[in-house]
Structure formats: structure tokens, C-alpha cells
Design goal:
Helices cover 33% and strands 41% of the residues. It is of the alpha+beta class. It has two domains: 68 residues, ACT domain (Alpha-Beta Plaits), CATH 3.30.70; 77 residues, ACT domain (Alpha-Beta Plaits, 2-Layer Sandwich), CATH 3.30.70.260. A six-stranded antiparallel beta sheet has the order 2-3-1-4-6-5. α3 crosses α4. The termini are close together.
């Protein structure tokens, strides 16, 4: 898609929580504690609940790694069944274009581009005018080059 703006944000940590109770109050509590610690959350994605449990992923800047570990440890103390994963040193690539809204095939083009670069995708979030993908740092240059090539 012509006129798309592609940006890269480096030094991103991905936190993923698996098998937590599918309860919006718990999610609200998680993000309240994160906000009280002064941590900025960027990407958020929740998988559909599987019975009584769900999975939640979100990103923060690497500089907040220590603070987020403390919060996650506290969550685990209250929910021992919670499975936690953390991956730092990632990058977010965002493709933005006002014309995405109502245009079929934009996501297909973005995903085709990053797949042609064999990009290791860690997370995807979207809005009507933005597609953001979290990738390992080693894949940023080839993924961005592929996006420029395919979206030109």
C-alpha cells in the first residue's frame, strides 16, 4: 500500500501470561499495578479464553525489565498456576496508513512481506490504520526492507 509509514521501535520486552483465570478484574489489576509502577505498556493482545483460563501478552520498554519482573513475580505469588514468559531485546515494526481503513488485503500484504523475509514474529496487534508486529532484533532490517519492497 503506497504512502505507508513504517517505523521501528527498539528495545522492547514481551511479557506473556498463560493459564491465568479468565477474569477482567485480574487483567485490570495487572495493568493498574503496572501503571502505579510508572511503566508504559504498548502492545496488548489477549487470546480467547480456553475454559476458565486465558493468555495475555503485552510489551514494555527494556528499561522497565526489572520493575516488570517484580510485578510479575507478585502476580505469580497470588496465582501459582500462572505461567510467565519474558523476552527482551525485541523491536516493534509499525505500518501506518490512513487508507488502510476499509481496504481489503492490507494485512495480507504486510504478512506476505514479512514472511518473504523469514521474520520471526513474536506478536501482532492492529487497529483500523496500523499494523504492528514484534520481531526479534536480528530480523528488523530484512523485515523493514521487505515491507518497503512489497508496499511500494
Amino acid at each position: 500500500m503506497k504512502n505507508s509509514k513504517i517505523t521501528v521501535t527498539e528495545d522492547i520486552t514481551l511479557i506473556f501470561l498463560h493459564d491465568y483465570p479468565a477474569d477482567i478484574r485480574l487483567i485490570a489489576d495487572i495493568f493498574k499495578k503496572i501503571a502505579e509502577a510508572g511503566i508504559d505498556v504498548d502492545m496488548i493482545s489477549q487470546a480467547s479464553p480456553n475454559g476458565q483460563h486465558a493468555s495475555l501478552s503485552f510489551t514494555v520498554f527494556d528499561e522497565d525489565f526489572g520493575k516488570i519482573l517484580g510485578i510479575v513475580a507478585e502476580l505469580r505469588n497470588h496465582n501459582p498456576e500462572l505461567k510467565i514468559g519474558v523476552s527482551s531485546g525485541n523491536c516493534k515494526i509499525s505500518v501506518y496508513n490512513e487508507e488502510m481503513k476499509g481496504t481489503p488485503g492490507v494485512a495480507a500484504a504486510v504478512f506476505d512481506a514479512v514472511s518473504s523475509a523469514n521474520t520471526d514474529i513474536r506478536m501482532i496487534t492492529t487497529s483500523e490504520v496500523d499494523i504492528s508486529i514484534l520481531v526479534v532484533k536480528a530480523d528488523v532490517e530484512t523485515a523493514v526492507a521487505a515491507l518497503h519492497k512489497h508496499l511500494a
